Amino acid sequence: MSMMDALVRAYDRLAKRGEVPSFGYSSEKISFIISLKEDGTPASVIDWRDTSGKKPVLRPMMVPQAVKRTVGIAPNFLWDKTSYVLGVTAGEGKRLAEEHAAFIDRHLEALATTTDAGLLALRRFLETWKPENFEALGWPEDMKDQNVVFTLESERREGINIHDRAAAKASWARISAKGDKTGAICLVSGERAPIARLHPAIKGVWGAQSSGASLVSFNLDAFTSYGHKQGENAPVSEHAAFAYTTVLNKFLAKGSANRLQIGDASVVFWADGTQAETAEGIFAALFGDAAADMDGVDETSEARKVGAVLDAIRQGKRLADFDPGLAQGVRFYVLGLAPNAARLSVRFWLEDDFGVLVDRYQDFQRDMNVEPKSEREPNPPIWRYLCETAVLKKSENVPPNLAGDWLRSILAGTNYPLTLLSTTLMRLRADKEMNALRAAMLKAVLVRNFPEFKNPQPGKEAPVALDPDNRNKGYLLGRLFAVYEQVQSEALRRQINATIKDKYYGAASAQPRKVFALLDSGSANHLSKLGKQRPWRRDNLEKLIAAIMDAMAPGDDPFPAYLAADQQALFGLGYYHQRSEFFKSKSNEATDAEEAA
Amino acid sequence: MAYGIKLKVSGERACFTRPEMKVERVSYDVMTPSAARGILEAIHWKPSIRWVIDRIHVLKRIKFQSLRRNEVGSKASARNIKTAMNRESLEGLHLLVDENRQQRASTILVDVAYIIEAHFELTAKAGAEDNEGKHLDIFNRRAARGQCFHQPCLGTREFPARFELIEPDANLPPAIEESRDLGFMLWDIDHEGDRSSLFFRAKLENGILAVPAPTSPEIRR
């Protein structure tokens, strides 16, 4: 099924439950309601914002669909911002007069023959309103440039606005049915229908324009074909265009349970089936913020079920084994959107049974498994890994395509992007920090992308924990480097500002032949100094160095001039494993010393 | 099919752009019939024949990749070119790339291979000496030799296609094991009519996409 098809079906499902606005209406943030008396004079102004917090928060309301305004003057029906409705604005207002006039003209024309009380009141209001009345009536200053709607004074208490009245709805339906329509085959439904010329804007994608971006747009010459203009290039019926943009706006809204932000990709996901909410909750927990995990505080049965399934997944149990209904009965859809100024590009689109996605997540977990795990964050979310590839570990510095590509490869089960490997190696060379997260990323790319590691032969696998029998060149050199660093730090104790890792990591991992002779002679000095303080420790370290060098075959170029990227990754992995081994034995030594004392 | 051919087409990248995602390109999962027709026409075509695609086999797993390219936002105007031709001067006929930059992201297919099963029909422009056998021989000869009018491409010109003729009685390489509903796919542009886009409901069955005939009611008009 194509992406738009799936979105339209999601809209239909939500519309049946009443969670999305029906055709012709959109959810817009409204600040104030102007209450009118029957004769059109304004009675009062109600602040509709949420004033419970420090700053008033705008609340959304269902209003007739917002017109797409870029540079033209186009008034909305029965609501708009104050420059159109009242002719007042806080700013300069160069076109204020035209905007206000446009609003008045449109409504006088539309409501010319109305007999409904509410619409009549509005018409009389517009006929008699002057912008100076705003100051005269003493209306609040922060009402300027906000969206306003109207209500009848008599109906104010019930919360019925003028655009909610039956007559207004009928009017709006009549107006939106008119217009310049060309019928053509819609590529979403396959039926002949009037084609949308412009698609409504999609708001909420991180990094895109705040006024909304378009998924389907043809605003420049180079994008059009066969002489078609705008929406004719891709015939999508108005109903389908409304449906997919409305449902995307709903999913992308702040606080929605259907979206995640991973790098620069806004990921929208939804499920179809009996256990849809459970599946969505599980997906959000697996890929999203770890802090959003059910911490046991949320006691609803839904949250508990999600928590139980999550634990089982994290332990590696196959979803199909312990919950087949969830695995095969739920169809899951994932859409990754990335911004490009006023347009959106689709990074990836996946649609599969939920069980398949969970299996792929577990494959990913297995690839990333490195011992020892990070103590502080044993199960970090994906954005945390991505921050490790960024300059200064800031999420806005994550390389642009990497997040989308990586997530797509995880969910589709294909090879990881090699940029993951190259960026991690680059960060290692730059800030010389090796931690569990970076080691995990290196190992994952090795295991999945490089065929020799897919068929484990002795000495050829990318190991999870320290593997003394592994004879891979990069791995051995990494271990050796860690031992040299340990020797130096034990010999010089607290007097080192920059260890050999800070000075030589980049060179040792990329061009070992240049550097290892130097490191070896340096280590000889450190070992002799260590021997004068603690001879037994020097013996242990010398034995370790000998063991590593034993595994190297002299005829096989053990210190190559250059190491390729996959070998550099093994270097990093070996370094991490060996160094962690030292931390473990250090903590053992400390406990031994405590016990002895 | 008596006058049918089978051609194996492969390439490193492909982009069969969806019409609705034309700007930030997203490819269809599978080759479109119009792209297949384009490849066949690059090998052999005359006004007297019309290629009709019957089936498309997908031989390799469907994988995507996304990349960003710097392109331009405007087209060279046909009217300007015409006036320049009449005036016989190149003045004013330029496109300044620096002022027109647009960066567009594309989500394209990677490592593709298809088998196109098609046949051709004679059109109204076929003359007395045109017959199916003649054109079939020409096509087979040219495809076997690798001859083409211009390099066939997989959707857009920057993704060239390698082609290889499959003999009528040879075994076909196996298609992928996937079966799913691909939604509405572009069948072709109605060049003889009003240039509107024609769509059909595409279903992948065991890796084979069956393409409806031009007169079939499955094509929504």
What does this structure look like?
The complex is a heterodimer of chains A (597) and B (221). Chain A has 22 helices and twelve strands. In chain A, strands 3-2-6-5 form a four-stranded mixed β-sheet. Chain A has a four-stranded antiparallel β-sheet with strand order 9-10-11-12, with helices on both faces. Chain A has a two-stranded antiparallel ribbon with strand order 1-4. In chain A, helix 15 packs antiparallel against helix 16, helix 18 runs parallel beside helix 22 and helix 20 runs antiparallel to helix 21. Chain A is elongated, with a radius of gyration of 32 Å. About 1% of the residues of chain A have low confidence. Chain B has 221 residues and is an alpha+beta fold. Chain B is globular and about 60 Å long. Classes of the chains: A alpha+beta (597), B alpha+beta (221). At the A-B interface, helix 1, strand 12 and helix 14 of A face strand 3, strand 4, strand 6 and strand 7 of B.
What is the CA-atom radius of gyration of chain A, in angstroms?
A: 32 Å
Q: What's the overall average pLDDT of chain A, rounded?
A: 84
Question: What is the number of helices of chain A?
Answer: 22
What is the first-to-last residue Cα distance of chain B? 27 Å
Name the assembly state: heterodimer
Strand content of chain A: 5-15%
Q: What portion of residues of chain B is helical?
A: 10-25%
Please provide the count of β strands of chain B. 8
List unreliable stretches of 5+ residues of chain A: 291-297
Give me the strand/helix succession of chain B.
EHEEHEHEEEE
What is the rounded distance between the termini of chain A?
A: 70 Å
Chain pair with largest interface: A-B, 43 and 41 residues
Can you tag this structure with a few keywords?
heterodimer, A: 597 residues, alpha+beta, four-stranded mixed beta sheet, B: 221 residues, eight-stranded antiparallel beta sheet, globular
